[in-house]
Amino acid sequence: MRSERSGTADVERATLRLRLAAAALATTLVLLGGGSPAWVPAGLVAYLAFAVVARYAMPFVPEPVARGVAIGAIGVDIAATGVLVAALPLDRPAWALFMIPIGLGALRYGAFGAAAVAALAIVAIDVVLALRLQEAEAVALWPLQLVVAAALVAAELAKIRGRDVVEHDVLQRRTAALSDLSGAMTSSQVLRIATEHVYRVPGVSAAWAWTQREDVTAIEHARGDVPHHLAATSLGP
């Protein structure tokens, strides 16, 4: 359980760092290039506040709604980047900041997340080009190609990271189970420890052990939501 909480905290810290990097790059574009509307600096400050609040509020969000909140936050990243691209001159490479939401999608949801965010980023760029068609040149299609390439890279990295995370998690669980089992002195302790570790595996909602004593078979060491018809079962030989 501690490793799961640590992994979640690592994701939240990485998310904050990526958003701070996006804000820093956007600030550079605005300050050095000039020609941006007066409200853009205020928008950057608001985005920084959003990044910090999202980082430190996520641990307090109930788990059933945490996924929806995370998806909504990535939606804010995409919208903020799209607004910045629309506000700045088209020759300013603000579209490169779409790499940050794509990276966040890969970080949280793997290859599917990277692909989904890239698709939304392409839609946002298309909308900006359509609204400013008279200013756009043929070279303006380059950002679309770059976004697709970034999505492919992020997807491949997400696959590699996913395999590493799974292998590391399996190794940790095996080590913990063997360490606990080494201290068991009786068969009952072995069964209790085994069912406890099985119950901790992601996706497992219940675990129990069938035991037979004096020609009676019954459930012991039940953990989680054991089906009622099984929990009440006591069978003969």
Polypeptide structure, described:
- With about 240 residues, the chain is mainly α.
- Helix content is about 70%, strand content about 10%.
- It has seven helices and three strands.
- The chain has a three-stranded antiparallel beta sheet with strand order 1-2-3, covered by helices on one side.
- Strand 1 and strand 2 form a beta hairpin.
- The protein is elongated, with a radius of gyration of 25 Å.
- The two termini are about 40 Å apart.
- The C terminus is likely disordered.
Considering the chains and any ligands shown, give keywords for the structure:
mainly alpha; 3-stranded antiparallel sheet; 237 residues; elongated
The total count of strands amounts to 3
Radius of gyration, rounded? 25 Å
Distance between the termini: 38 Å
What is the SS-derived class? mainly alpha
Q: How would you sum up the major sheet?
A: 3 strands, antiparallel
Mean pLDDT: 76
Strand order within the widest sheet?
1-2-3
Number of helices: 7
What oligomerization state is this entry in? single chain
Strand-residue proportion: 5-15%
**Low-pLDDT stretches:** 231-237
What's the SSE pattern? Answer: HHHHHHEEHE
Q: In brief, what are we looking at here?
A:
This protein is mainly α and about 240 residues long. Helix content is about 70%, strand content about 10%. The longest helix is centred in the C-terminal third of the chain and has 40 residues, at about 140-180.
